[in-house]
Amino acid sequence: MIMPATMAALAVLICFGGNYLTGQSMMERPLVVGLVTGMLLGDIKVGILMGASLEALFLGNVNIGGVIAAEPVTATAMATTFTIISNIDQKAAMTLAVPIGMLAAFVVMFLKNVFMNIFAPMVDKAAAANHQGKLVMLHYGTWIIYYLIIASISFIGILVGSGPVNSFVHHIPQNLMNGLSAAGGLLPAVGFSMLMKLLW
């Protein structure tokens, strides 16, 4: 499971980290993350379908201030990877995306509000001394640290979770799996309703 875990982490690094390097180009949207994850794992069709479904789910996901409702990049990468490597129904896999996204959001909030503040005095000191080289080094150095930590969530999650998920999926009764699939099918409607609530 090292290879799928590495590919999931790479997808997060490319899409989440690359989004900020390319001027907020929307690379972090589930539609793109699903495609990239599918390409890296050799199943583009599942990647696109999962990305499109999760895009609808996270459509109304809005971050206000320092609070992150859910983190869609890690959620999409992990849900898509589990779908491909575990051969589970896509709608059932969508139900995994919500708790994963919420858990990843807590990690991102901690990194932004606590961990990255460790480097703030260094940046202030370098700026006050007009050390441009040090500023550039700190800028890209913290970028690498920040996104490697976020990507490691997917790596560890797939590496540790793939065995239990596979075992769990194979022991789920068919009627319960049908229920999970039905619930997963309703999740895009939840995303649209959240968006409508924001608009109206």
Automatic annotation (TrEMBL):
Keywords: Cell membrane, Membrane, Phosphotransferase system, Sugar transport, Transmembrane, Transmembrane helix, Transport. It is a multi-pass membrane protein. It holds the Pfam family EII-Sor. It comes from the Bacteria. This is PTS mannose transporter subunit IIC. The keyword Lipid biosynthesis does not apply. InterPro entries: GatZ_KbaZ_carbometab, PTS_IIC_man. It comes from Streptococcus agalactiae. Its main location: membrane. GO terms for cellular component: plasma membrane. One of its GO terms (biological process) is phosphoenolpyruvate-dependent sugar phosphotransferase system. The chain crosses the membrane at residues 33-52, 64-86, 92-115, 136-160, 180-199. It is found in: Cell membrane.
